[in-house]
Amino acid sequence: MKKPFSLKFVNFFIIAKLFFFSLYILLLITLVYIHPIEGFWYNFKLGVLDAITGDSDIVLTDSEIAEAIGEMIGSILIPTILVILNILFIRKFMYKMTVTMLVIQVFFAFSNNIFSVLLSVILLFIVLFNKNTKNYIKQRNAIESDPIALENPPY
To answer: TM segments (predicted)?
Structure first.
């Protein structure tokens, strides 16, 4: 069975989420370790620290900066792990686990105010309600239960 376009769409956006989450984590780690004096990185670090503290007049020590940015990294790390698991479950044709990971991603996106709430809901609806996608992800379980189909698997 050929991979449906809707599943290619889902895979693309899941991998895009993984890329942007990884880029976000890398950017925050960079902010902890560089100590710019002026320029783009200095202004960017000030903007992030203003978002953390809510006040530009508060002066934070290096350990407080690292702690605050570590909390920001931790809030995005669990959704990143869930995205990696989701990619794995789609490739292993595990429909129930794929849906479960998408539902957990939606809950984490709501609880952490992550920008990917709408994208997670759309991907969940595509996996749940698109017949071709559902049949493609469920195909391995159907093949393994049929002894005749095991002789000529489509994958």
So the answer is: 12-34, 72-90, 102-129
User: Which position has the token pair 């869930």?
Assistant: 82
CA 95 to chain CA centroid, Å, is 18
Average pLDDT of the residues in 128-139:
80
- Report which of 60, 72, 59 is spatially closest to residue 28, judged by C-alpha positions: 72
CA distances from 48 to 68, 70, 72 (A): 10, 12, 10
Mean pLDDT across 75-95: 85
In this structure, which amino acid lies at residue 139?
Q
Q: What is the mean pLDDT of residues 2-13?
A: 84
pTM: 0.71
Q: Which range is least confidently modeled, 21-30, 122-131, 141-150?
A: 141-150
Q: State the first-to-last Cα distance of the chain, in angstroms, to the nearest integer.
A: 8
DSSP for 39-94, please give it.
SHHHHHHHHHHHHHHS-TT----HHHHHHHHHHHHHHHHHHHHHHHHHHHHHHTT-
